[in-house]
Amino acid sequence: MKFRDAITPGYIPKAMKHIPTARDDPIVLDSNYLFLRRILNHKGPLTISNILDEFRDDKNEKSVKTIYRYLGKLTDKDMITKCGKRVYENNKSDTLYGITAKFFLIGVETNPFTDSEDEDMIKIRKTLVDFISIVLQNNFEGKEIDVECFEKKIMEWYAISNSELIKNIETATEEAINKVMTAEMTADSGRFLMDVVFWLGLIIKNPTLIEEIRGCLKDIS
Length: 221
What we know:
Blueprint: E1 3-7, E2 14-21, H1 26-29, H2 31-43, H3 48-57, H4 64-76, E3 80-88, E4 93-99, E5 101-108, H5 119-136, H6 147-170, H7 174-180, E6 185-186, H8 192-204, H9 207-214
Parallel strand pairs: 2-5, 5-6
Antiparallel strand pairs: 1-3, 3-4
InterPro entries: WH-like_DNA-bd_sf (IPR036388), WH_DNA-bd_sf (IPR036390)
């Protein structure tokens, strides 16, 4: 049956989008979500029927209910959206679904300097802050740094730098993305040592941050 696709005016996927999510989120763990995003990326907006065919061709047949569940979760994350209608010659129509970005940076919250309430993250953060504060004492005539104050400072700096990073990610051009990215990425939960190196390097070379930390020094008088 003949048809025409009526795409919603203004629907244009971004080049890149940052998606914050939990470590146990199905969109990270379940390969079916990745497959669905990839076919929409490669083939453009599709109907439920098209999506069912794609899974069937991949020898991974799914029910209509399951596909709606996948679409629902990805829509909740603003990774997929209803983007138009496929209109048939008998005037019936089906909803078209499309991706909201060509590339998703899925930022699993494993960085210890976020305001995560995860007990493991809090424990790791406090260990890192203690260690970094001890190493930095030589920059403050050996005076002890109040770790609670210092922890707040680092988290503030992280929030600012992370916000700027996300802005840059979401305004990146598709050409730039294609040059440096070949696959989707998730945050690496094993880079805590890199955090220590990063913060020490950043703080020691930045007089402004050193002065801010002086406000966290304990009064030993």
